[in-house]
Amino acid sequence: MRDTTRHDWHEKIEKAIAAIIESLDEPDHKPISLRYLSQIIHTSPYHFHRMFHEFTGETVHNCLRRLRLERASFKLNNTYERITDIALDSGYDSLESFSKAFKSAYGLNPSEVRNFVNWNGLLYSKSGIHYKPATKPLWYYLNRRGGNDMETKIITLPEKRIVCVENVGDYWGLPIAWEKFHKILGENNLHQYGREWMSVFPDHDEKIPVEEKRSYAAMTVDKDFVNKYGLKEFIVPEGIYAIAVHFGDTEGIGPAWDKWLAEWLPHSGWEVDYSRPNLEWYQNRVCDPELTLTFMCTPVKKVEN
Q1: 79 near 33, Cβ under 8 Å?
Q2: Is there a single domain that holds both residue 297 and residue 180?
Q3: How far apart are CA 16 and CA 35, in angstroms?
Q4: pLDDT tens-digit readout, 230-257
Q5: pLDDT of residue 96
């Protein structure tokens, strides 16, 4: 496809996305139609459907459904609206159907999200199209650059105090560490003190032998938390991190890390800072580790000229 044609289709797809976002309140049994969307960009429904999927990586129906769930997720965590009202506003005809769809997408019940301190709520989007609360029109972003299909953000994370169970050696031992960690937390009623849940990798430098690598099943806690339960503890220092999102089972996180850094890092102007740990920052308690929304966080510093 020529650059001029691709640019033209980017504009058409973005116009269609704006219409989709405006339709989030419509009932699920009356979704915005392919015919209507194709008419506003002056093409055939078939051609529009094919090009929308090519540029965004998902169908119109799946895009609409995901944006509704992301908006519902935001409302659950940031408003006092009743869950039933949020379900109806999201196009579902009952609380039961909404809860089933939400559980399928996030691996969590809607009521659980209300209690999270740090909750992102974004589902995987190859194109980077996401719901964001704002005045209309709502924000969206279509990745124009090609290449790496995982959106990367550079942010400064504050210092974090963590308590944890240690794993030494191959990272495949971490699930056992998580089991031990949750057992200690459960026996002592400590889950309530967790602010963020993450696996921590201080020895991600390839120069460190596998058998010597440390990793931790961890949660962040406030400074007044009294650690008297035999848990290890240390401070993750403040610093700049590159962050990308992974949604799926835990076995897929490793390949996602490798793909992301191989595609993004060489041309980013950043390099890995091995003085600080890698973080897999989960947006649930990892009680069900087969389905997680994970922030992959790698410490970075500017490449010196």
Answers
A1: no
A2: yes
A3: 11
A4: 999 999 999 999 998 887 667 778 888 8
A5: 94
296 sits in the region (left: phi over 0; alpha: psi -120 to 50; else beta) called beta
CA 250, CA 246: separation in Å to the nearest integer?
A: 9
Domain of residue 178, CATH code: 3.20.80.10
Query: Do 178 and 283 fall into the same domain?
Result: yes
Looking at the fold, whether 157 and 80 belong to one and the same domain comes out as no
Number of folded domains in the chain?
A: 2
Distance CA 234, CA 214 (A): 13
- Residues ≥6 apart with Cβ < 8 Å to 76: 83, 86, 110, 113, 114
Query: Do residues 290 and 249 lie in contact, with contact meaning Cβ atoms separated by under 8 Å?
Result: yes
Which residue in the block uniquely carries the two structure tokens 């509704």?
68
pLDDT in tens, 180-223: 999 999 899 898 888 888 999 999 998 999 999 999 999 999 98
**Structure token digits, residue 70:** 């992301």
- Those residues whose C-beta lies under 8 Å from the C-beta of residue 252, and which sit 6 or more positions away, are 246
Q: Which residues form the domain of 268? A: 153-302
Least confident of 95-99, 123-127, 168-172, 271-275: 123-127
Q: How crowded is residue 112: how many other Cβ atoms within 10 Å of its Cβ?
A: 17
Structure tokens at 123: 């589902």
Residues 287, 200 share a domain? yes
User: Does residue 83 sit in the same domain as residue 158?
Assistant: no
